[in-house]
Each structure stands twice: as structure tokens, then as C-alpha cells.
């Protein structure tokens, strides 16, 4: 089974505010874009992924992610993350109605294609399923089988919300790169230790150099 992966990308100017402990507001947009580029590049390289659709209204992010090979879906104004994901899933299924769809966080810069394939192959066994993040509070991936609504419930304590919605929690070992999202400086250090992608590694190196 091959999946359509939907990746939401916020306007870069507003992204990653919790990284203020590590990067100032002049640097955070570049970091957020680097995270998204490495995430999408890894997803596009995954054997279980047919295509990637990025839902964003940010022109710069849209241009650079499209250059990698992602399709760009404009978000619905003012609807928030879950509305944007629902809109994007509907849009991609208009052309591929029998495709399974997975929403994937855009801040997984250490993402490894083989680990993502393990998660998606496990998700194929269930109508809806999700993978909790490294902190075991949030969600980094939500999957829906063909014909099933995605039903995203991202936000505060989304692990609990997705479980309450009836989605099956995927309990997998050795998929750390799919769990390690980046919200804080500590998260960024953990992603770098796992082996972040080249764009994130370069952006982090510039950040460290600037801080010296």
C-alpha cells in the first residue's frame, strides 16, 4: 500500500515560537523551513509514500517545497490546523479517492524513510491510527485508510484526543525519527543527535556560529 502524506506548514513568520529559548525571531523562519524541507524530502524518499501534499499559505515555503516535488494545497483561511488538514485530505482524495492518507508533522528533521515506511505499513492494518510523539503527549502522524475520514485532532494533548476519537495508537519500537518533533531547543538537540537532515544541520550550524 502506498500513501499520500499531507504535511501542514504554518506561515514561517509565525512558526516555532517555542524555539525562542534557542533562536531569535530573525532565525526561526529559516529553521522552520529547514525542518519542513528535510521532513518532506525524507517522506518523498519513502518506499511506502506515493506522493506528498503540503498545505500552506506561505509563498516561500510553497516554492521551496514544490521544488522538492511536493504538491501544494492552499489552506482554508482562519480554519486552524485541523481544518487545514481536513481540507488538504479532501483535496488530494478528489484526484485519488482510493488513496490512504496520513497527516505528518512538518517538524521531523531527523526523519528516516525506512522508519516512516514501518509506521505506514503498521497503520495499513487499521481504519485510523496514530503515532505519539517522543514526549508521549502529542501526535506526529495520523493515518486513515481508503474511504475513512482523517479526523484530525491535533493540539494540546493530541495523543489523548486521537485515542478518544477511536484511532488506534501504534506501539512501535525503533521509529524514533518519526516521533522526534521539534518545538524547543532540547527537541532540536535530540533531533541533531538522531541525525538531522542536511538543511536542518546547516541551519543549526549557522545558529551555533552566530551564538559564539
Describe the structure.
The chain has 212 residues and is an alpha/beta fold. It has a single domain, classed as Spore Coat Polysaccharide Biosynthesis Protein SpsA, Chain A (Alpha-Beta Complex). Helix content is 42%, strand content 16%. It contains 8 helices and 7 strands. The chain has helices at 28-44, 59-68, 80-95, 113-123, 158-164, 176-179, 185-194, 198-210, and strands at 3-8, 49-55, 71-73, 101-104, 128-132, 139-144, 168-169. Strands 3-2-1-4-6-5-7 form a 7-stranded mixed beta sheet, sandwiched between helices. A hairpin with a 6-residue loop joins strand 5 (128-132) and strand 6. Helix 1 (28-44) runs parallel beside helix 2 and helix 1 packs antiparallel against helix 8 (198-210). It is globular.
Number of beta-strand segments: 7
Q: What best-fitting shape do the alpha-carbon axes yield?
A: globular
* Strand-pairing-aware structural class: alpha/beta
Work out the count of structural domains.
Answer: 1
Percent range of helical residues = 40-55%
Question: Count of helices?
Answer: 8
CATH class: Alpha Beta
Given as residue ranges, the uncertain stretches (5+ residues, pLDDT < 50) are none
CATH architecture: Alpha-Beta Complex
Tell me the name of the CATH homologous superfamily.
Answer: Spore Coat Polysaccharide Biosynthesis Protein SpsA, Chain A
Rg, rounded, reads: 16 Å
Q: How would you sum up the major sheet?
A: 7 strands, mixed
Distance between the termini: 48 Å
**Overall mean confidence score, pLDDT:** 94
- Write out the strand line-up for the largest beta sheet, numbering strands in chain order: 3-2-1-4-6-5-7
This entry's quaternary arrangement is single chain
Q: H/E element string?
A: EHEHEHEHEEHEHHH
What name does the CATH topology carry?
Spore Coat Polysaccharide Biosynthesis Protein SpsA, Chain A
The amount of beta strand, in percent, is 15-25%
